[in-house]
Specification:
single chain, 356 residues, alpha/beta, CD-NTase-associated protein 12/Pycsar effector protein TIR domain-containing protein
Length: 356
């Protein structure tokens, strides 16, 4: 018996004022490709891309049908690229998209909305209406002269955004009615910090902090890229100022600590990289400066993660750090198994138990 799939409808609010190649077609195809990859990675998942009056019979009242489809959607994607002529006094997006976006925000909430803006056509973020500018939009650059391959980056970013909303499953406005603002903000932060912590394997991070600046591992870099995918995502946000500053500090410090990869040389395994001088000679002035910057970044990281863990344990007991830690490690192990299956000629990992 075939396993029942969980269906999510993704509504695409498009506009035809911009060139079809760069906006309507580009976004539609990028979204379709993103949905296919997500379904391939999760056989229990079914994503249905929808728009305006697609798959409707007869002559329905278009506005009613659009409203019906938005209400049934789990995710709303809107193209808010400027459609007014360059230099217009009041640049704005397509008014139909604005109407659909407003209804989506009211029924689905901002946390289920993805805004797209083509910087090859409009001026970002100056062209955005004030209300839109308060919510981070996903910008992409795709000009009429660009090859179709240029939309691959957009597709990958849409894949990440759609997956993030599915994983977070944020509450809709109707579910939040009757709750105090404090409760809504707390639940929002729980949701977002759980999402972030699912990318962090604390033992690996602690080892990374202890080994830098001298040693850098591919494993630590992999976890950083996963962390950056959430911390730098337009859908990630927290209200708690202590957590917000701590996350920013961890992110800034990590970027700083990894900003001198040219100073490292790989060990025979290819999975570790060492910062050292030939014959253990004293570091040159420029290399000493790089070492000191990495070390400063390491200390900033340590402050950030320490504050995050302390804050979560004190005020966000809904987040089980042991479980998020296990999930982060399992995702990494799945990635390693996938790499070994795809590239069997690569050296195998040593099969040893890793302390969690």
């Amino acid at each position: 018996m075939a396993k029942k799939k969980t269906t999510f409808h993704v509504f695409y609010s498009w506009q035809s004022d911009s060139p079809k190649k760069t906006n309507f077609n580009a976004i539609g195809k990028a979204l379709a490709d993103a949905c296919k990859r997500l379904e391939a990675a999760n056989p229990k998942l079914k994503l249905v891309a929808d728009e305006a009056t697609r798959d409707t019979s007869g002559s329905p009242k278009i506005t009613d049908k659009i409203i019906e489809k938005i209400e049934a959607a789990a995710i709303f994607i809107a193209d808010i690229t400027t459609v007014t002529p360059p230099g217009a006094d009041r640049p704005c997006p397509n008014p139909n998209v604005g109407f659909e976006l407003g209804y989506a925000v009211a029924t689905l909430g901002w946390d289920r909305v993805v805004l797209l803006f083509n910087t090859a056509i409009g001026n970002f973020p100056a062209d955005l209406p004030f209300d839109f500018a308060q919510n981070r939009a996903m910008k992409y650059g795709y000009a009429p002269s660009d090859p179709p391959s240029k939309r691959e980056d957009l597709s990958k970013r849409l894949e990440f955004a759609v997956k993030a909303i599915i994983d977070k499953n944020p509450k809709r406005p109707a579910e939040l009615k009757g709750l105090s603002r404090e409760k809504i903000e707390h639940d929002h932060d729980v949701e977002n910090m759980r999402w972030l912590m699912d990318t962090l394997h604390i033992p690996t991070l602690q080892q990374h902090l202890e080994e830098m600046p001298y040693l850098l591992t591919d494993k630590a870099i992999w976890f950083f890229e996963n962390f950056r995918g959430v911390a730098g995502n337009s859908l990630f946000s927290v209200y708690d100022p202590v957590l917000r500053e701590a996350v920013d500090k961890l992110y800034r410090g990590w970027l700083r600590a990894l900003s001198h990869d040219e100073q490292y040389h790989s060990t025979p395994s290819g999975k570790s990289h060492v910062f050292s001088s030939p014959g253990d000679m004293p570091l040159t002035a420029s290399r000493q400066k790089a070492w000191d910057e990495i070390d400063a970044g390491r200390h900033e990281m340590a402050e950030g993660i320490t504050t995050i863990l302390e804050r979560l344990r004190a005020d966000y007991i809904e987040i089980n750090i042991l479980r998020t830690n296990d999930r982060a490690w399992n995702v990494y192990c799945d990635f390693q198994r996938d790499v070994e299956a795809r590239f069997p000629e690569l050296p195998k990992r040593r099969k040893k138990k890793t302390k969690k």
